[in-house]
Amino acid sequence: MKIRRAPGWRAAWTAAGLVALAVYLVFTVPSSLFAMWGRLREVPVASHDDAHAALMRFRGPGYAAAIDRIKGALPEDSAYLLLDSGDHTIVRFDLAPRRAVFGGGLKEAAANADRSLPKWTVIPGPDPPGPRLVETSRLREEVRP
Amino acid sequence: MLLFLAAGLGLVELLPALRARPLAARLGWAYLLGVAAVPGAVYLFGIAFDMRLRRGVVLAPAVLFVLAAIVVRARRRGPHPGDAFRPPRFGHLAARWAFGVAAFVAAGLLADAATHREIGWDAEMTWCAAARWVRADRSVTPRALTDVRSFADHPQYPLLLPIAQVVVQETFDAGDDPRAIKPLYAAFFPALLLVFYDLARRHAGAAAAALTALAFAVTPYLAFERSGGAAGAYSDVPLGAFWGAGLLLLLGRPKASEGAAAGILLAAAVLTKNEGLPFAAVALGAAGLAAALGRPAHRRRRLGGLALAAAAVALAAVALHAWKARIPERHDEDYAGQLRTVSLAKEAAARLPLLPRAVVRETFSWNDWCGFWLVSGIVLLAGATGLRRRVVPPLLAALGGCLALYVVALLLSPWGGVEQVHPTWSRLLLQLLVPLGVLLALALRQALRARRSALAFLNGADIIPGMPAENAAPRRAFGREALVFLAFTALTVVMTWPWATHLRDYCSDTGDPYLNSWILWWDFHQTFHAPFHLFDGNIYFPYKLSLAFSEHNYGLALPLFPLFALGLRPLTAQGILTLLGFAFSGYGAFRLGRTLTGSTGAAWVAGIAFAFVPYRFEQLPHVNYLFAGWIPILVESLVLFLRERSPRRAAWLGAAFFLNGLAVVHWLVLTLVPLAAIALVLAFRTGIERDRTGWNRAAVALGVATLALLPFLLPYQRAAKLYGFTRGIEETRQFSALPQDWLNADPHNRLWRGFSEFPTPGERALFPGLLLLALHLAALLLSPASRDAAPSGAAGTPPGRRLLGWLDGISLFAGFLALFAASPAGIHLRFGGKEVFRATDPARALVVFTAAVALRWWLAYPAFLPFVRGANLKESLRLVRQPDAIVVGSILALLGFFGSFGVRFPFHRILYEAVFLFRSIRVPARWATIAYLGLAILAGAAVLAIAERWKSRRPRARTGLVFAAFCLAFLFEDRAAPLDLVRGEADPDEVTRFLARTPMSGGLVELPAGDEEHGNYRAVLRAADHGKPLVTAVSGFASPLILRIEEDSKKSPIPDDLLEFLEKIPTSYVLVRESWLKPEWKTTTRAWLEKGLASGRLVFVKRFDGAVRNDLFAVARNEPAARPLEPLPWTPPAGLSPTGVPWRTDISLTVSVDAPAEGAGAVQGTLRVAGWARIPGDGLDVSILIDGEMRAPETARRFPRPDVCAVVAGLGDCARAGYEATFAFRPGDAGPHEIVVVFRTQDGRERRYAPRPFVWKP
After folding, report:
1. Cβ–Cβ < 8 Å for B428, B450
2. Does the pLDDT value for residue B510 go beyond 60?
């Protein structure tokens, strides 16, 4: 009767590597498959959304309606003054290819409203009510004392 | 996507080296080349000739590639080298799995692209906005980029991917919906994996390449991340694919066509992102190094390929430079300019020390990488010898070069450098994924080659065939045991998901986990402060020995001491221990199963079955009862000792006994009988009962262990005597299981949770799952009887008939006594009108009956007893021929099962009556844990028997599959994830921190005390943070002091003598958690506090914690030095009227509160309070109190109420009779409130209108 000789540390390392990879795969493969199955199940529901519905689902109805309103008012070839806020990058993308001119903060833009700036200003904001379109010349009225 | 694929297939057809690859690989190459070449050509021509990007122009390159391919194919004739779709080089099993999983994930990504509009922040900021500008102006230099006034982030970022978007949109006349272009990015995921597999397979073989690709495919950051990964529209995955594929092509021995392909891909990298150019240069350098290090015979070929690639890269670089010259720079980092103005050495000295920590944090971010890089590190170490290949040095050079560039960029970044690690490091890893993956695959190949020795290592515990398992001396390597434990830990993470991701502050609920957190912390704290007063906890002040009011958990806290020393929060430590409880229970059962069956596979089955039995999830709030790993280890130590009664084994038996008792007193008590039974049965069946030396050793070891445990047990006895704490039998009966409870499934269990009565009985949902129940039958039926357990034939000398007669008489008498005592009337013997004997409880008679019967059977069975083998119990034990696993498993299962019925069944009832230790068991249903261990061992034995039968029928079959299948089945049946967890209050709040630094002569009372919703658990958890004596606590017993405070503080009004009672305790501070007071308590509590403040016996100190409103009051008698730090925030006592005297109540004042209407219930959003206030000749002042506090209204007005004057005569002028105020909803307002409107006259009268409760909703 004999007992199998214990393999050395190299075998231990190899075992550690293979076990680590196996554990990683055991954990991540099912969770990835479940996650992707969830996304596949959404296809029949969400793939029929048009662009507006998709935007509405993503950013909220108020925001989507506001973007549509602004798009209707600003031709694609035009430029507009875009005020600074956390959301201005999103608004600029959703209004592209309209060109944005950076206006800084509301007070700063209002102070410069007399200069040769685009006629329209977009004041970004989250949903609701979403971004607002105001005439640049009336920006001062937006500044509360 | 199909457009690029078609163009790419055309290109592949033109490149002979790629053309010969299998179709699956060609598809990957085709997509990359298609995206590189078609928009690349449009971009270059757009720069060179300023062409208008119309549909015909953007389609032309694609059409040209396809046509050229058709011509070449037609001229070449003959079959195509890679004629069919062949994932068959994917013939390896791992490759098939990888291919299937990756295909499914890719399908999910494409589905996501079709349904979700999100593309990630940077995509919206830069690339996708640029694509819209390019498309609108039909130019690669749109006005939005060239006009310096236009607001564009990173205007000089290369436009290859935006142009690819334009190509897609123009070709299919798609609108602006981002979902139209997302598949373009999603398709890079399968393309990257296919190309990686194709490249890595050449260096590391199919299995390693496929496993690495599989690991990539399920890595969260690559597959799911929108801000950088394939689920968004960033350029990092495309860059990683272009650059990595180009680099690896060059590091092979590239033919001219491969050099050309590498050139196209590296040029695409240049045109994809700004870092593409330096990365491409690094790739060319690495290829040069490979040529220099390679065999001279291949050098010319390598250099030829390199020259082709370099030419393409140079062309792209020149074009990009020309394009950038037309785009004014703004809103972007100017690294070159920075290099001129800042000192690199100075920045390095300042920033480099901070980098490693930030990089480690990102690399090991669980949410992003799920441990991928940790696993990669281990695999690289495991297969380090596999990295001795020619391809590795240039690969390392390329990776090192890119890393150096990244670090330099961080040093020059105007954003602080370290802050940039968070958004960029993981994306850099994606860009370097292909070469990193090749290194990983090389190491993995080496590890796979050595897998036999690794398996031998893992199976080292198994005894070689022919050797009886019982006689082996298992010397298990620490490393292997650690790996087994790690595996159980990993399984625990999965089975308790998502707890591991929220370990810091999540818990099962905010009750017992808080208490256990305090217990663990107190064990740590007191060990280093006053170890001889371990049980004198800082809760239940002024009681002593408060740790003994519940389990002390000292053995559980010990391993956590280093974590506490490192500053871990008690709740976090409790969470870690809970997860380790699963793992350790599994590991313990694994060890016992392995020792009893000699099979690692059976041990895994037993371990998994025991670790994740549904009942354990029911015990999530009770870490101590969940942590049952010492039970199987103790049983194992006993079995090992019985096999070899050496001093070493005896010492281990004693140690295990001590550690089991030190960890959980319940398990110490509940294992006593099973241990004795196992020892008895195994000793007699193996004939070692006369080994006095061995028994002496065991007695010494267990005696020493018991003595060592006494300091942890005696305080319980002292506390019971001191305070009269004993468990009443009715309380114990309530937690004794009924037979149907074994069919009540734990509600956490995903499979069986509907199979339970409602509401689920507390701690009595004992259903262990169908598998565990079914397999124990299989174990009994299938396990072969042991051959060496033959009867000895020695039943001992028959005892005298007289003794047997006495025992029969005693047992009969006791039996009858128990029977009649159990009758409704009991036994009442009267003599001369006086009751001389009474027996209404059968328990003691049952004890005597059991003892007499057991002794009788031990000596000799009665002649009439049927179905027994042998002359007496001793001989019957010798005749037991079942394997150890069946015997031990059955003993545990039977005793645990019957024990779970508690005082409803004679077994535990007898123990309850006869052994004082068992009276401390409040929940006998916890015996079920012992039963589960037995069932788990039987399940392991059953699966072993099944596997052996299968093997005997199919000799070539792998029994490992049987074990794996049952392990998976148990995991499936026991699954409870994702668990419903709550976020606990791990960190101390402001008032707790204040208390921690405030000297205190008495204790702290928290109000509300013991309310139904919160209990006193939070106060106990906070006691672990401030360390001060706490009066209002909670544990296994309630103190009269606390009961008095809880009852009095809920009375209306609160009795005045409560304050005196608190002063006598002595109480130093009263903490009132305002936001927890119900409206009806708020009024009474404030009235009581007002009296205390008015009399000077209470001093308001300060309000803490904002919306929570923790008001701290000092008890002046015990804290004479306490001073107010802030004025009282809520309405103080009425104060003085304008006439200089206190306001006097006058309920005759005619007033009204119209809104909110009485019984209005909920108020949503803004609160409006309105009504009228007027008495003849006087307009009343109106004050509105919300929860007794003045709050600034949003609007307030007085207005005419002619309708009131019309109805109530003599009011006079009603021009200001109406009042109205509105109050905005603020965060934290949600919940029940109370409005009191106070009306005051000029002459010092007031009326407080009846409180109007309402529920405020946002």
Report:
1. no
2. yes
The residue-averaged pLDDT of A23-52 equals 80
Identify the pLDDT of residue A5.
Answer: 43
- Evaluate whether B777 touches B856 at the Cβ level (below 8 Å): no
Q: Quote the pLDDT of residue B1142.
A: 61
Contact B447 A19 (CB under 8 A): no
Task: Tell me if B801 sits within 8 A of B862, measured CB to CB.
Answer: no
**pLDDT higher for B120 or B430?**
B430
- Strands B1189-1190 vs B1110-1115: parallel, antiparallel or unpaired: unpaired
Distance separating alpha carbons of residues B345 and B22, to the nearest angstrom: 50
Q: What is the mean pLDDT of residues B368-394?
A: 89
Q: How confident is the model at residue B1022 (pLDDT cuts 50, 70, 90)?
A: very high
Helix (H), strand (E) counts: chain B? 54, 20
Candidate from B653-662, B709-718, B721-730, B805-814 with smallest mean pLDDT: B721-730
The residues near B68 (Cβ < 8 Å, ≥ 6 apart) are B10, B13, B14
Contacts 24+ apart (CB under 8 A), B141-144: B141/B46, B141/B47, B141/B50, B141/B323, B141/B326, B141/B327, B142/A97, B143/A99, B144/A96, B144/A97, B144/A99, B144/A100
Say how many residues make up chain B.
Answer: 1258
- Measured between beta carbons, which residues in chain B are less than 8 angstroms from residue A39? 108-109, 111-112, 115
Q: List the A79-83 sheet strands across, edge first.
A: A99-104, A79-83, A120-123, A132-135
Write down the residue that tokens 């903060």 correspond to: A105
- Determine the pLDDT at residue B468: 38
Say whether residue A100 is in contact with chain B using an 8 A CB cutoff: yes
Q: Give the per-residue pLDDT at B90.
A: 42
| Look-up of token digits 């004596």 | B1029
Q: How far is A141 from chain B (nearest CA, A)?
A: 23
Q: Which residues pair with B1170 in a beta bridge?
A: B1155, B1220
| Token pair recorded at residue B1080 | 């009806």
Percent of chain A with pLDDT over 90: 7
**Mutation site, B96, B97, B110, B112, interface A, largest A CB count within 10 A:** B112
B708: buried, middle or exposed (CB in 10 Å: 19+, 13-18, 0-12)?
middle
Alpha-carbon distances of B660 from A64, B657, B664, B681, rounded to whole Å: 63, 5, 6, 22
Instruction: Mean pLDDT check: name the lowest of B189-203, B421-435, B949-963.
Output: B949-963
* CB-CB neighbours of B796 under 10 Å: 12
Structure tokens at B1151: 């007033």
pLDDT band at B133 (very low <50, low <70, confident <90, very high): very high
Longest Cα–Cα distance of chain B, Å, equals 129
pTM of this structure: 0.56
**In angstroms, rounded to a whole number, what is the distance separating the alpha carbons of residues B537 and B540?**
8
Q: For the residues of B533-554, what is the DSSP string, one character each?
A: GTT--SBSTT-S-GGGGS---H
Q: What angle do CA B710, B715, B717 make, to 5 degrees?
A: 95
d(CA B359, CA B336): 24
CB pairs under 8 A between A and B: 211
Among the ranges B224-233, B555-564, B1218-1227, which has the highest mean pLDDT value? Answer: B555-564
Average pLDDT over residues B1142-1157: 79
DSSP B276: H
Average pLDDT over residues B653-682: 94
**Among B105, B134, B151, the residue to mutate for chain A (most A Cβ within 10 A):** B151
What single DSSP character describes residue A76?
A: T
DSSP state of B499: G
Q: What is the mean predicted confidence (pLDDT) over B879-906?
A: 89
Tell me, what amino acid is at A139?
Answer: L
